[in-house]
Amino acid sequence: GRFKQINPSGSEQIDLVSFLKALLESGTRVSVVTRTPAQPETATFLRSLQAACVGLPSAANLRLMSRKDLHAKGLLGDTYAISGSMNFTWQGINKNEELVHFHRDPGRVAWLRERFVDEFGDWPE
């Protein structure tokens, strides 16, 4: 519940599907990039995310992509970015020793946004 920018409900825990669904419901455009071929846990996550978005008026704001050699991890908002080695899994968040950066500096967030756009493309306006 410490990161109100990414979990406005303030609850102690929120699963990634619920978080992304809440972002979509708020009108946020969401890009999810995963590795190809997807690990079984990733495939389950993607099915759960797609099922959670069925019927949402904002479902068109969800973009799913995959990359063969993807290893980078990040979560980028308008005013924050999370980057580092952490997988967005229970083990990555709760068990493994990971290096994670939470950025709020506008210059750093803009720089990371440019890297994301260079790698994954931008949303058409």
Q: How would you characterize the overall build of this protein?
A:
- The chain is of the alpha+beta class and 125 residues long.
- The chain is 35% helix and 19% strand.
- The protein is built from four helices and five strands; from the N terminus they run αβαβββαβα.
- It has helices at 16-25, 40-53, 90-94, 106-120; strands at residues 30-35, 62-67, 73-76, 81-84, 100-103.
- It has a three-stranded antiparallel β-sheet with strand order 3-4-5, covered by helices on one side. Strands 1-2 form a two-stranded parallel sheet.
- Strand 3 and strand 4 form a beta hairpin.
- The mean pLDDT is 83.
Q: What do the pLDDT scores average to?
A: 83
The percent of residues in helical segments reads 25-40%
SS elements, strand count:
5
Distance between the termini: 33 Å
Roughly how many Å is the radius of gyration?
14 Å
Q: Secondary-structure element order, as H and E? A: HEHEEEHEH
Would you kindly provide a brief summary of this structure?
With 125 residues, this protein is an alpha+beta fold. The chain is built from 4 helices and 5 strands; from the N terminus they run αβαβββαβα.
List keywords for this structure.
4 helices; three-stranded antiparallel beta sheet; two-stranded parallel ribbon; 125 residues; globular; 35% helix; alpha+beta
Write the layout of secondary structure elements.
Blueprint: H1 16-25, E1 30-35, H2 40-53, E2 62-67, E3 73-76, E4 81-84, H3 90-94, E5 100-103, H4 106-120
Parallel strand pairs: 1-2
Antiparallel strand pairs: 3-4, 4-5
Helix pairs in contact: 1-2
